[in-house]
């Protein structure tokens, strides 16, 4: 899943569990160049380090910045930018259909994720006072 700095979905791809998330990231990011021409930097956790960083730089000119905790950190530490996508996953826990992966087709799972995000965004708009 690719989200913006607020945690709103830009792109989502559901793939089999047999695909490593680093390889799955390519499935999400490849169409992104056409859809998001102004995108320059992507933040990710340490699981996305390695060849993906060079591939993004070479293919699209994007910078993949790995957000990692400090070596001297003790216990839990909130890291800037790292929890944005986790918060989005947390929002999806409110939707029973997304709490378990019971869908037969990956396209159905992707659609349900997008429907849930649309619902969340409409609720946020409704909560905003009129200007």
What is this entry, summarized?
The chain has helices spanning 21-29, 32-35, 51-60, 84-92, 96-99, 106-127; strands spanning 2-3, 9-11, 41-44, 63-66. The chain has 131 residues and is mainly α.
Poorly predicted residue ranges: none
| Number of extended strands | 4
- What is the general shape? globular
By helix and strand content, what is the structural category?
A: mainly alpha
Measured as a percent range, the helix fraction is 40-55%
Mean of all residue-level pLDDT scores: 83
C-alpha-based Rg, rounded: 16 Å
Strand content: 5-15%
Helical run tally: 6
How far apart lie the N and C ends?
32 Å
Main β-sheet, spatial strand arrangement: 1-2
The ordered string of helix (H) and strand (E) elements is: EEHHEHEHHH
How would you sum up the major sheet?
2 strands, antiparallel
Question: How would you characterize the overall build of this protein?
Answer:
The chain has 131 residues and is mainly α. The chain contains six helices and four strands. The strands form two sheets. Strands 1-2 form a two-stranded antiparallel ribbon. A two-stranded parallel sheet has the order 3-4. β1 (2-3) and β2 (9-11) form a beta hairpin. The longest helix is centred in the C-terminal third of the chain and has 22 residues, at 106-127. The chain is globular, with a radius of gyration of 16 Å.
């Amino acid at each position: 899943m690719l989200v913006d700095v607020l945690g709103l979905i830009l792109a989502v791809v559901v793939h089999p569990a047999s695909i490593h998330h680093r390889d799955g990231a390519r499935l999400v990011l490849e169409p992104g160049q056409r859809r998001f021409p102004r995108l320059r930097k992507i933040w990710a956790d340490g699981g996305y380090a390695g060849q993906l960083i060079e591939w993004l730089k070479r293919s699209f000119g994007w910078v993949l910045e790995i957000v990692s905790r400090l070596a001297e950190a003790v216990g839990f530490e909130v890291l800037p930018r790292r929890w944005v996508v986790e918060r989005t996953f947390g929002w999806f826990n409110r939707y029973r259909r997304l709490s378990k992966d019971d869908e037969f087709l990956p396209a159905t799972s992707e659609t349900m994720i997008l429907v849930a995000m649309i619902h969340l965004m409409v609720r946020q708009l409704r909560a905003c006072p009129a200007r």
